[in-house]
Design a protein that fits this description.
Elements (H helix, E strand, L loop, with lengths): L2 H6 L3 H44 L3 H11 L6 H8 L14 H20 L3 H31 L6 H55 L7
């Protein structure tokens, strides 16, 4: 009996487990491909955008040069946030001195960028954590039904047990096959994203120091 035949002859639980593993695999691979593309472009883009900023003569002149490199829009939001008026006087947004308002808007911009860099990490962690247990559930359920079927068919021999039990163990293997790429991607992407976030935090700190001290010309 091949795997597809075993799946076709399975009950609702067996098919549900298989479909759930398939859905988790597809979702995790979509996130992996998307995040790989994002992070590969983001790392080099942020470094080049920072270099373009510091080589510019003014804030306004820095934006076009940064946009040419920062195609994922990670460093640009920090500069744009720093150029905006954080709020009118008489409101909490406009309270405090210029340095405090600048710190607030840069922190908000960093939080937005960090959420984008971390997008999909929860899904990868979830898939990596529960996929083996979903596969194990399919295995246990398959072994149970295999043993019930064997007990109703006369004498039980090792040959009759090995086939159905071996086919049920395929679900555990499938769960591991879904979980391992998700766990590896979670760890690797988390490390890369952490380095990019640290780079952006350093840039935000330098930008705050520059603008809080009087700032460069804007035009």
């Amino acid at each position: 009996m091949d795997g597809l035949q075993w799946l076709r002859e399975g009950d609702a639980v067996t098919r549900g487990v298989a479909l759930l593993l398939l859905a988790m695999s597809v979702a995790s691979w979509v996130v992996i491909v998307w995040r790989l593309r994002l992070l590969l472009r983001a790392g080099a883009g942020v470094r080049r955008a920072k270099a373009a900023f510091w080589q510019a003569a003014s804030l306004d002149a820095a934006l076009p040069g940064m946009a040419a490199f920062d195609r994922e829009g990670l460093a640009l939001p920090l500069v744009r946030a720093a150029r905006q008026d954080p709020g009118t006087q008489g409101t909490l947004a406009g309270a405090g001195d210029a340095a405090q308002r600048l710190t607030r808007v840069l922190r908000e911009a960093l939080d937005t960028v960090a959420r984008r860099l971390q997008f999909g990490q929860v899904l990868l962690a979830t898939v990596g954590s529960i996929a083996p247990f979903v596969g194990l559930l399919g295995t246990v359920w398959g072994i149970y039904h295999a043993l019930v079927g064997l007990s109703q068919g006369g004498q039980i021999t090792i040959e009759r047990v090995a086939g159905p039990v071996g086919e049920a163990l395929v679900m555990t293997a499938a769960g591991l096959a879904v979980a391992i790429p998700a766990v590896l991607a979670y760890n690797v992407f988390g490390r890369i994203a952490g380095r990019i976030e640290a780079d952006l935090e350093g840039f935000a700190h330098d930008l705050r120091e520059l603008l809080a001290g009087g700032g460069p010309p804007r035009g």
